[in-house]
């Protein structure tokens, strides 16, 4: 889903939703310099045109480039899960990625009250830095699900929630992909497999 389409549809569907201030180009550039990694172009567009971090629909905690953002600033995943190994396994492809190249998208898991979270897998040579996004489980310290990029991730969230506005709670992206509670448990916890 294109960012501009999401912003337009979101504001039409949820006209009273309070948003945090947007980020400036200078704030984004300064933040990228501080972490030593360039952010995806589409994520930067989201920060500049929608909100510099947000608890999206009160449930999906997207970080910004400002510590004062509703969910804080995005950061290296090793600062969320302190005992993350230096290389993290992507279970779907059986590949290892450098944990220092994992940058949080969400600041924790919406719904499970854990440190499970979505992170950008920041690899060299990706056009416009449109990195894959992986879901890191705090118990098994591996990436259990990968989505192609930020626009795809946002599209999954929006498709699962746009017609859900009368519900008390939004549905987190991971729960949209895996709606069954037992299946999520087995994916996230080796002891349930």
TrEMBL record:
A Pfam family recorded for this sequence: SMI1_KNR4
Domain of life: Bacteria
Domain named Knr4/Smi1-like: residues: 22-156
Protein known as: SMI1/KNR4 family protein
